[in-house]
Amino acid sequence: MPGVTSYTLRTGSPARTRSDAVVAGVVWTPQGPRLGEAAAEVGEAYGRKLRPLLASMGVTGKAGEAVTLPTNGVVKAPLLVLVGLGPDETDHVAVRRAAGVAARSVPNAASVALALPAGTPELVAAVTEGHLLGGYTFTRYKSAKPSKGARSSGKDAPLDTEPTTKDAVDAVVLSPVARRADAVAAFEAAQVVARAVLQCRDWVNTPPGDLTPPLFADAVSSAHAELTKGRGAPKVGIEVLDEDQLAEMGCGGILSVGSSSVAPPRLVRLTWEPPAAVAHLALVGKGVTFDSGGLTIKPSSSMLHMKGDMAGAAAAVAATFAIARLGLPLRVTTYAPMAENMVSGTSSRPGDVVTMRGGTTVELANLDAEGRMLLGDALALAVEQRPDLVVDIATLTGHMQVALGDKVAAVMGSDDAQRSLVLDASAAAGEPHWPMPIPEEMTERVTSSKVADLLQHDWVRWGGGLYAAAFLREFTAGLPWAHLDIAGNEMNTGGPYGHVPAGATGFGVATLVQLARDLVALRS
């Protein structure tokens, strides 16, 4: 098993720390790079030698930069790691990203001191989250010394191999406000949120054959058992519904997708009901564990990363567990519909009509637009309890990825107020979202079926992401609602950057947790 990094928050001098390495932030300025205020004592130790040293090493202070050099006794730590902060060392997003870069740039150190901007509780949280997230690796299927003929075992690490390990690291966040109660609270909460993101990443990174709907539901149940174990643990309720129960409940949308696979669908429902809850938030996450496109089959190359099509469900579940760990006085009901969209003799067909939860009928046109069918049922269930706010999160449409790229998600909803809640939360969480409209003409398109109440997809090339949101709106009963389309954001197919690794990103978890915090503050 990989080692677990431990974190400590304390005051102290970065020049006198006895850690194996000290990380110092470098600010870019038009006059040249300078050390950030948190690392001022390191600069004083080097004195006049610092500027020519930075120049000789090519240090600029630009974001994403990392330069490592031995200190030769100038400061107590034998290794100095310089990471770029960009032009503003008070920007929590830049600090979070720099801390992530630092986590990947400290070689073979058992202890590290982080002399990054941490003069406020928000910056303390940014350093902690960034370092924890940036150091993430997924090694379950990696081997150190593969033997001849080694093969994958599926659920376990590859057979006949020695699994990789990563030594534990003692990380110290140096902060002038380390003794303040609000800084300590931010430090501890940041670890809860970051570890929830890591849980989400683990699930999204898992190969689809090892995370079918029943196995995904089992994984959530195992995580729930760990969460609720022991005296004083949060009391989160869980219910796992199988295909027979879904049929009894009239969830035709989930079944229309899941019936194509030998691995039957599931619906996981979580409940967090603290006694002094100030509001009720419902979360819904798309959990398509693999998406072949069904009978509207995808091109082969488009299937490669479809194990990530359950990232919405993973984010919603992980965020719910984090909300409970934080003890937020907010009632949360979470629905994670899970299905595998495969090709078989039991697949739904274009032209089929499906009856959703609540009785709405839907004409199917594109079996690769399956996510909205899962979400329709789950949203219908969520609104039956009349929550104060409903938020769904899904890798829903390629249209939004084309529009916004793979680092910015789309947010749509019932009105500007609901969207602004998400936008404010995403800005604080460092997960950018962009508001998109649901034009009135989309209602005409969604209701244009000649044989059913709704048309699942109309094959018009333009505005497909907006059409999908309009379709989902039909199942929200007019309640306050926000829809997060994170297509493309769930998986980083390139190299690591900032606090984001290659592979699963865990995008959306931090935004949902921050949204819950904001809702509590708004209602308190």
UniProtKB/TrEMBL annotation:
Lineage: superkingdom: Bacteria
InterPro entries (UniProt xref): Leucine_aapep/pepB (IPR011356), Macro_dom-like (IPR043472), Peptidase_M17_C (IPR000819), Peptidase_M17_N (IPR008283)
Renumbered residue ranges of the record's region Disordered: 143-163
Family: Belongs to the peptidase M17 family.
Name this polypeptide is given: Probable cytosol aminopeptidase
GO terms for biological process, alphabetical: proteolysis
Amino acid composition bias (Basic and acidic residues), ranges on this chain: 153-163
Gene Ontology annotations for the cellular component aspect, listed alphabetically: cytoplasm
Role description: Presumably involved in the processing and regular turnover of intracellular proteins. Catalyzes the removal of unsubstituted N-terminal amino acids from various peptides.
Keywords assigned: Aminopeptidase, Hydrolase, Protease
Domain Cytosol aminopeptidase: 200-513
Domain Peptidase M17 leucyl aminopeptidase N-terminal: 31-145
Molecular function terms, GO-annotated: manganese ion binding; metalloaminopeptidase activity
